C-alpha cells in the first residue's frame, strides 16, 4: 500500500509525518480472515494493533455461553489498542462479520511510534475520546424509542464506514442480532423497523451481496435527532 493511500484510508494517520507512515508500513503484517472467523480471543495478551483495510468485524464480550456484541467496525478503523496501552489481557474478542483484510503492527513498535510522533499520539487520543463519546450517547439514549435507537446506529455506521453510491450510502448488512445488541433493542424490533424502512424505500437491501443501502440518509439522521 502506498503512503498516501494508507494515510487517506485510516483517519488515525492523517496527521502523522511521512517518516512515521513509511516506518509503520514497513513493519505492518497483512492478515486475511473469512467470515465468522475469530480474529482475536478474549483473555489473550495484547501484542498488536489491527487496522481494517476492508471488510467488517464485531467486538463482543462473552458471558458463559452467551456473547454480547459491543461494537461493529469497518474499513478505516482500528482495534486492539486498549490491551497494548494498559498491558493487560483483552477483555473482549473480535470476530469477522465478512471477509476481512487487516494490517497489524506489533505492540512494541506501535508504542515506540507514539512516543516518537506527537501528532500521531494526539490524534489517537482524539479518536479514543470520540469512541468514549459514542458510548456515552448510547447510554443517554437508553430510554429512547427503538426506531430512534436503530436510526442512530445506522446513521453512525453509514457516516463512519459507508460507501457513497448512485443510490445512496451503502454499508454491510449487519446480522439483525448484532444490530439489535449495539442498538439496545430486541431482534424482533430490529426486524420490524428494517422492514418498515424497506417498505418506505428509505433503505434498499441486497441479501445476495449482504449490503444495506441508506437511500435517505438525511431523513434517517433527522429521525435519529442528528439534524
TrEMBL record:
Give me the segments passing through the membrane.
none
Query: Which residues are in coiled coils?
Result: none
Q: Which CDD domains match?
A: CAP_ED (cd00038)
> What SMART domains does the record tag this protein with?
cNMP (SM00100)
Q: Note one Pfam family from the annotation.
A: cNMP_binding
Which InterPro entries would you find in this protein's record?
cNMP-bd_dom, cNMP-bd_dom_sf, Env_Response_Regulators, RmlC-like_jellyroll, WH-like_DNA-bd_sf, WH_DNA-bd_sf
Cyclic nucleotide-binding domain boundaries? 12-131
Report what the protein is called.
Crp/Fnr family transcriptional regulator
